[in-house]
Design goal:
Length: about 110
């Protein structure tokens, strides 16, 4: 059974940094592209970043380009999202995604 467990969310001040993690199990981690999405109150779910399984190519949503970096560690079956220069509009629940499966999310709050 696929399991995705996010962690690392919390409260951070504007301009600060935070790294969230997603530990994956139940599938061949190295064979799948993985991604991060976020959901803020009153807004639609938004693509944050994705990373290829084959060549490590990364993709960012428009709102996070230049500030957020996705990476993966196959030895730990973990995908990370490093978030820098955080803004209040980055406040959301952040979800790990793979092949139709979702984690339960981790909450990130950016205070001004």
């Amino acid at each position: 059974q696929v399991q995705l467990t996010e962690s690392g969310g919390g409260l951070v001040q504007v301009g600060g940094s935070l790294r969230v993690s997603c530990v994956a199990s139940g599938f061949s981690f190295g064979s799948y592209d993985m991604g991060w999405f976020r959901l803020a109150p009153g807004k639609e779910r938004e693509f944050v970043a994705g990373i290829s399984s084959t060549d490590g190519v990364v993709y960012n949503g428009d709102a996070t380009k230049g500030r957020f970096t996705i990476s993966r560690d196959s030895a730990k079956n973990t995908v990370y999202l490093q978030m820098n220069s955080l803004k209040p509009e980055d406040t959301a629940d952040y979800y790990c995604y793979v092949g139709g499966w979702w984690g339960k999310g981790t909450q990130v709050t950016v205070s001004s």
